[in-house]
Amino acid sequence: MIMIMVKLLILMIVFLLLAFMSGSQTASLPLV
Predict the structure, then answer these.
(1) 8 Å CB contact between 19 and 31
(2) How far, in Å, CA of 18 to CA of 30, rounded?
(3) What is the DSSP string of the chain?
(4) Contact by Cβ (8 Å): 27, 19
(5) I need a labelling partner for 17 at 20 to 30 A (CA). Which of 2, 9, 11, 27 fits?
(6) Backbone CA torsion sign across 19, 17, 24, 22
(7) Alpha-carbon distance 13 to 18, whole Å?
(8) For residue 16, what are the CA distances in angstroms to 1, 2, 6?
(9) N- to C-terminal Cα distance for the chain?
């Protein structure tokens, strides 16, 4: 479904924003 894809995309964007605000260097996103 497209809704699931959109929800996943929004979750990833929010997670990236939170990680970036916390400190892009301290949170280097090991999952990626």
Answers:
(1) no
(2) 15
(3) -HHHHHHHHHHHHHHHHHHHHHHTTT---TT-
(4) yes
(5) 2
(6) negative
(7) 9
(8) 23, 21, 15
(9) 24
